[in-house]
Every structure is written in C-alpha cells, then in structure tokens.
Amino acid sequence: MQTALITGSAGFIGYHLAARLLAAGWRVIGLDCLSTYYDVTLKQRRHAMLAQTPGFTPVIGRLEDPGRLMGLFEEHKPDAVIHLAAQAGVRHSIDAPRDYLEANLIGSFELLEAARAHPPKHLLMASTSSAYGANTEMPFEERQQTDHQMSFYAATKKANESMAHSYAHLYALPVTMFRFFTVYGPWGRPDMALFKFTKAMLAGLPIDVYNHGRMSRDFTYIDDLVTGITGLIAAVPGAEPVSDQDSLSPVAPFRVVNIGASKPTPLMNYIAALETALGIEAQKNMLEMQAGDVPATWADTSLLSTLTGYQPQVGVAEGVARFAAWYRDYYRI
Fold first, then answer.
1. DSSP H or E segment with residue 302
2. Handedness of CA 103, 116, 7, 319 (dihedral sign)
C-alpha cells in the first residue's frame, strides 16, 4: 500500500483527491488547519466523509507551524506528497496579503524543508492559472514567460514555483507544479462564482457579473482535475523531455503542467448553464472589472495529455447541473 500526504485535505480539491486515492487503495494522511476563510462546517463534513475510510488519517494543523510537516514526513514517509493547502482567492489577497505570506510562502517553505529531509518519490505542488497574469497569448502554454502577476495571490504561487525549482535543483527532489484553471463542482468553495451565483439565484437576489460579462474561463470540472493530478503522480520528472513542449527544467527534475479543460467558456454561457440547471433566470448586476482579475484564461493541456493520456470528460452544461443538484441536496433547497 502506497502512502500519500495531502495538504489541504479538507478543501474542495483536497477532499476529492483524497477520496479518489483512497478508492484506489492508497493510504492517505490529510493535513488541514480548517481555516475560517470560508464555512468551516463544509470542511469538517468533507473530512468526516473521508474518515469513514480506514486508510485515511486526518491531522489538524497549520503548514507554517515549525516542525508540523517535518514530523509528518518523518513518521509516515509518504511515497507521494500533493501540496494543495494555501490561502486561496484573488480578491482576498488585496485585503489580507499577510495571510498569503504566511500560508503560501512560509507554509510551502516548511513543506520543502520536510521534503528535503525525507524525500518522497514525487512532490506535486499546486500552482494556478493566475500565474500567467497579464499574458495575452492564448492558449496559455507552460513555457511562456510568467513575469507579470496581477494579484498577490498569483505572486505567491509563482514564488512557490521558483522556490520548488531551487530545491529540485539543489537536492535532486522530483517536483511537478500544476497550474489549475477555474475548478468547479460538488463540494466547491463558497467564495467561487458558481457557488455565489447559485446561492443568490435561489434566494431571488441579483448576481454580480464583472466586466459586463465580457470574460471567459477555462472552467474545469473537479473530476477531470483529479484525474489529471492522479495521472501525474506516476509521471516523475526525469532527465529527458517527453516532447518538444515539455517544460522540464534543463537543470532540475522539475516541470510545470497545466490542468484544464482546454476549452474557454464565455462567462455568460456559464451563467446560462446555471439558469437552465436551476430553472431560474438570473437578475444580473453588470459591473466593471475587479482589481487583480483577468479577462480570459485558456489552458493548453498538450503536455498533460502526453504525460498521462488526459482527456477532460465533463462539459460545462453537465458539470454545472451536477453542482446545482448537489447544492440543492446539501442545503435542502
């Protein structure tokens, strides 16, 4: 039985990933601090469901607490480490940047130090499509320069990539960074647009639509994202690139990989899918673009497909309908 350490295991992505690995026979150590950034009850429910499987070991604590991660690595000697824990959210980083400094920079430093002392077979770390920042060449491809982040959240994630590369180079630590593109689905985050839209529409309230709806996103359904991550666990960076598009570092066992649907969807189409799923026409409050936001994202997933055979399976209409059904059931609406 292989052991995985997942940080952020009570989070949206962490919960789904842990459930998938447990179902595949892995032993999973799940670390989460149950932060109050959004509804803690939701996080507790996710952990409680995972705890029904004997192979799951929950650990409550903060990444940045000195020695916390070092002790977990030493005790459990994980084969794979998937680092998902972070202070999330573009807009919150404008108001509370210190939260991102502590969780995303100091917390990731503690993780890298623990991995240096007790190297796993593969360290996989979450980055974000926000790392592409002001880039306008579409689709986003891993070898593009990413020097102009638009939010402090994105800046901390880009810093994580650089930090991890240095450890991969100095200590021969195999690292894969994956850049997520807007992830949605059941058990999602309440601060994300789909959750906010659904809550408002069911309450008969208007939804806020930024940039007057002139936006598009590479919306990625949670099951497809988890398939991408689990496929990458075995794709340990080596010495030779796998294709001309490989982002493999020339000086370290390190690569960056996009995980997305590779299909940008206009925001208004996303809202229309939710209107159909709920049977409600949304009242739309059209607003200007928010600070730190970008008008469009679009993932080139060629490298992921080469490494794992990845092909996204769930389109926006189906994925949004699944979320809406979960939301009604969870909140009994």
1. helix 302-308
2. positive
* pLDDT score at 292: 77
Query: Do 211 and 295 contact (CB within 8 A), yes or no?
Result: yes
H helical segments located in 101-216: 107-117, 152-171, 193-202
Cα–Cα distance, 9 to 58 (Å, whole number): 8
**E strands within the chain?**
3-7, 27-32, 56-60, 80-83, 122-128, 175-180, 183-184, 207-209, 216-217, 220-221, 254-259, 265-266, 284-286
pLDDT in tens, 90-130: 778 888 889 999 999 999 999 999 999 999 999 999 999 99
Bridge partners, 257 (sequence order): 178
Which residue segments constitute the domains of the chain, with CATH numbers given? 3-331 (3.40.50.720)
304: left (phi over 0), alpha (psi -120 to 50) or beta: alpha
Phi, psi of 208 (to 5 degrees): -85, 120
Residue 93: its pLDDT value, please? Answer: 84
330 included as an active-site residue:
no
DSSP state string for 260-297: S-S--EEHHHHHHHHHHHHT-PPPEEE-PPPTT--SB-
Mean pLDDT of the chain: 96
pTM for the predicted model, two decimal places: 0.96
- Residue with the two structure tokens 């390190």: 254
**How does pLDDT run across 122-177, given as a tens digit for each residue?**
999 999 999 999 999 999 999 999 999 988 999 999 999 999 999 999 999 999 99
pLDDT at 92: 81
Closest CA to 161 of 48, 252, 271: 252
- The catalytic residue among 153, 167, 270, 310 is 153
The answer to whether 219 and 184 are in contact (CB under 8 A) is yes
